[in-house]
């Protein structure tokens, strides 16, 4: 039974979304905007050509600090945390012992002995419990800062142009996957050059109570330049075009990091971490399945998340995410298929409403911005 609106968790921007007449949905227990009156296609296009502004305050933030902080985060994640410079971010994961996903996350190195871990909203409590469970063996403190933190994401080619007049912090020197601290529109922020859209842009973290002021200032600065508020609907199509993983779709507790195509975040030579032995064994044996990109061959055939991939009437795989692509103009998706079929140009079949429809494996990412 779905929760009533009064039972759903709300970000600090809930009233702002309703004032903009956003269509609100239950997203993992949060009352979130799926789209605004302009619609998903217009929001998607704005992010690709101008800019869009997202509320991502539902994400979880966990701070790890102290002499044992680095050792703990190295133990919990497969990427090489020790190689992060202060002011640098990387993408990584929490893994179970069998190499499958607790969650994926970003690690921010705030100082030699201080890290900010940004995790998915739906997994936030589980992730905090996971970090707490392993922390006692390390000399550090672990604090769940999620309730006290707001976050908005300004994404698109005009992001610098819109944001720079609002801050004295020079934005051009901030590299991709780097961050700094400064004020934006008088609000103290962590200014991070990251995002989940494949475009240039910034994620701005601030105190929860300052989020609405920050949102309103960025909207006012950007609207004359074509900035649109953007919801979960276009966030999904944007990340899908760029083959960015979504927990519960491309990754979960039944899928290990190597078969998910995320071997690049697994540094097996860095020393021990949770899941390393399982991934070493997986690397030594051929993977039985692989994540591939596909397009359906008929325009009327639109695959959707979790549909079966079939061959001769039997299921041989499954779609993880799929949608019509506004940028590419085709119906595309991602799917796990047997490794022997996972070659570009190969034909597969997707079962859509009881009908096996033809699809072709195509290269990924489907979209990559020109820099």
TrEMBL record:
Its EC number(s): 2.1.2.10
The keyword Protein transport is assigned to this record: no
UniProt keyword annotation of Transferase present: yes
Domain spans labelled Aminomethyltransferase C-terminal: 289-368
Pfam family name, one: GCV_T
Domain named GCVT N-terminal: residues: 15-270
Catalysed reactions listed for this entry: N(6)-[(R)-S(8)-aminomethyldihydrolipoyl]-L-lysyl-[protein] + (6S)-5,6,7,8-tetrahydrofolate = N(6)-[(R)-dihydrolipoyl]-L-lysyl-[protein] + (6R)-5,10-methylene-5,6,7,8-tetrahydrofolate + NH4(+)
Origin superkingdom: Bacteria
Keywords annotated in UniProt: Aminotransferase, Transferase
InterPro entries in UniProt: GcvT, GcvT/YgfZ/DmdA, GcvT/YgfZ_C, GcvT_bac, GcvT_C, GCVT_N, TrmE/GcvT-like
Purpose: The glycine cleavage system catalyzes the degradation of glycine.
Subunit structure: The glycine cleavage system is composed of four proteins: P, T, L and H.
NCBIfam families on file: gcvT, PRK00389.1
Record family assignment: Belongs to the GcvT family.
Protein's name in the database: Aminomethyltransferase
Organism of provenance: Geothrix oryzae
Phylogenetic classification of the source organism: Bacteria, Pseudomonadati, Acidobacteriota, Holophagae, Holophagales
Primary gene name: gcvT
